[in-house]
Design brief:
The chain has helices spanning about 1-20, 30-35, 60-65, 75-85, 100-110, 125-140, 160-165, 170-175, 200-220, 245-255, 310, 335-350, 355-365, 405-415, 440-455; strands at about 40-45, 50, 55-60, 115-120, 150-155, 185, 225-230, 230-235, 240, 260-265, 285-290, 300-305, 375-380, 385-390, 420, 420-425, 425-430. The two termini are about 35 Å apart. The protein is α/β, with parallel strands linked by helices. The chain is about 40% helix and about 15% strand.
Length: about 450
Amino acid sequence: MRSSNRSRKSESAAWRARDRKVLWHPFTQHAAWDAEEFPIIERAEGSWLVDLEGRRFLDGVSSMWCTSLGHRHPGITRAIVRQLKKLDHATFLGLSHPPAIELAERLLARAPRGLSRVFYSDNGSTAMEIALKMAIQYWRQTGRPERTKFVALTEGYHGDTVGAMSVGGVDPFLDAYRPLLFPTLRAPTTYSYRCPKASTLEECAAHCIEDLAAILAKHAPEVAGVVMEPGVQGAGGMIVQPPGFVKSVEELCRKHDVFLVLDEVMTGFGRTGTMFACERDGVRPDLMAISKGLTGGFLPLAATLATERIFQGFLGEIRDRRALYHGHTYTGNPIGCAAALAALEAFDKERVLERLPAKVEALQKGLAPLESHPHVGEIRQLGLLAGIEVVKDKTTRESYRYEERTGHRVILEARRRGAILRPLADVIVVMPPLTATIAEIKKLGRIVRDSIRAVLD
């Protein structure tokens, strides 16, 4: 056994050395990465990742928010294998195929009312790029070419391509690229923990709506749409919105006849407790971007859903050149579509949404003891996702210095204890698969509590 363990450690070290020579990881300072003994993941099952050394880790962030139905889900696996035996890929330019058609039908049946068209792409960033281009081109083709601007929330995140970054609001992700970005009108967000105008989430949200109303009152004639993540802003720090907030935004959009563009890439497919987060407020967007959980996390696939009004704005004579000038090599990939169809089937057969409330409660109870911790400023949770903001001084809400990497030290401690987490600066993200068991969620809660205490006590 000792010899086997030494062999496994040696193999892991060899793979790490090879990684350091050839790879460039996302959002990673490699001067620090090269000093870490990061796990080399070999296999996975359900809520667990297993590395080459045989160590098991609870996937506490659903592998970047996407593995919603757990790893190696048997139904999705079978669907992919069946599709591989029929059709691997065919261009969507001039052709179509049954998986893409059927998936579009099923998505529209589950989506908010009014959405009637599906445009496929590869990931959340591209789905948002497409939504922005649809909005701009629609207004240009329907007699309102001056509508070229978007209103977006501060601390919003919509991806890392240029258009998606332009409507984003997380400064560290944007600062190096500002010469590339187009100007956007900024509306405040419901970050009540650091709100200068209010002390409660509801008061903060009311001020945000007032400010958005003022922006639209002044700028609506030049605004193509309001862009936002509904329910919770992810990469901005798991910033939760109170019930009714998204509805109020929708009402302002209707008043000024500007499009409501919802980014449901992270919040969609059950993460917040409903299939789509905007359902909580009964909101009907004009454009909606989805990805991540669409295939259960198995394959890259995304879609932009649009209303018939927007689609009709692209019809005309050939000479009008009203086609949407956007496309991807793997648009509507049949294997990805087959995986997504199987994921939707699993939601129904396994009653995933029905079983969520008990799991949401288990996560809340697991994190609640941290509320009294002297360095936990706030715990924000919606559905089966949570963000724990750690602070240097709870009284003054002073943050730790960036170079202290406090959040990163917490997730390294969690890794040692058997869970994979992810920090957003000093906000610890907890987002287990929707199919995680109550016991697994309780275990994850213990690891999070113990890790924060070990690093900050």
